UniProtKB/TrEMBL annotation:
The gene is LOC103545262. This is Lysosomal dipeptide transporter MFSD1. Lysosomal dipeptide uniporter that selectively exports lysine, arginine or histidine-containing dipeptides with a net positive charge from the lysosome lumen into the cytosol. Could play a role in a specific type of protein O-glycosylation indirectly regulating macrophages migration and tissue invasion. Also essential for liver homeostasis. Homodimer. Interacts with lysosomal protein GLMP (via lumenal domain); the interaction starts while both proteins are still in the endoplasmic reticulum and is required for stabilization of MFSD1 in lysosomes but has no direct effect on its targeting to lysosomes or transporter activity. It catalyses: L-arginyl-glycine(out) = L-arginyl-glycine(in); L-lysyl-L-alpha-amino acid(out) = L-lysyl-L-alpha-amino acid(in); L-histidyl-L-alpha-amino acid(out) = L-histidyl-L-alpha-amino acid(in); L-arginyl-L-alpha-amino acid(out) = L-arginyl-L-alpha-amino acid(in). Keywords: Lysosome, Membrane, Transmembrane, Transmembrane helix, Transport. It is found in: Lysosome membrane. Pfam families: MFS_1 (PF07690). The chain crosses the membrane at residues 31-52, 73-95, 101-129. It comes from Equus przewalskii (Przewalski's horse).
Length: 206
């Protein structure tokens, strides 16, 4: 990990290890590259937050088709939250001391992906317990992935830039939460999922 950091510092400083002529998007010392990194960082949490709020958008369908009450339905969010009471701390420790930021991000992203697949399989096979297990696995990676996202932010941006970066990351997360509800309502209403309809519904829904 120390070798990776030294190599990155050499590239940023334009040292002897840095290539002489790189396209702007491939040169870590150029603004275009850092903006690309910022875009990817914002999308890192987009899918996670989009999947996180899927159950809320389909609450009435879950309760009707799977014959569950509100208390049992809310267990989907409880199973997500319980592991994160302690795992955020351990997730940060694992990123710092064990996996490193790259492998930590990949591993926690895999937990998010696998958890959502298991959750979807529970819906296909009408097995609510499997959906709960999927949300638990999803929770193992969800908030720790946010820790990795913040680690990337402070690694690539310094000083006053961090305020803008954290703000954009939060905005993308809220767009994801809004998108899942708006897309579901457009589907139920039978309207076309055009950008104009999406924006109109996002502004008018409460």
């Amino acid at each position: 990990m120390e070798e990776e950091e030294e190599e990155a510092r050499a590239l940023l400083a334009g040292g002897p290890g840095a290539p002489s002529a790189l396209p702007a998007l491939c040169d870590p010392g150029r603004l275009a590259h850092r903006l690309l990194v910022l875009l990817l960082m914002c999308f890192l949490g987009f899918g996670s937050y989009f999947c996180y709020d899927n159950p809320a958008a389909l609450q009435s369908q879950f309760k009707r088709d799977m014959q569950v009450n509100t208390t049992k339905f809310m267990l989907l969010y409880a199973w997500y939250s319980w592991p994160n009471v302690v795992l955020c701390f351990f997730g940060g420790f694992l990123i710092d001391r064990v996996f490193g930021i790259r492998w930590g991000t990949i591993i926690f992203s895999c937990f998010v992906c696998i958890g959502q697949v298991v959750f979807a399989l529970g819906g296909i096979f009408n097995a609510f317990w499997l959906m709960e297990f999927g949300r638990f696995v999803f929770g193992i990676g969800g908030e720790s992935l946010a820790v990795a996202q913040n680690t990337y932010a402070v690694s690539w941006f310094k000083g006053k830039e961090l305020n803008l970066v954290f703000g954009l990351q939060l905005s993308m997360a809220r767009i994801a939460l809004r998108a899942v509800r708006s897309d579901w309502k457009l589907a139920v209403m039978g309207g076309p999922s055009s950008p104009a309809n999406f924006v109109e519904l996002s502004l008018t829904q409460r």
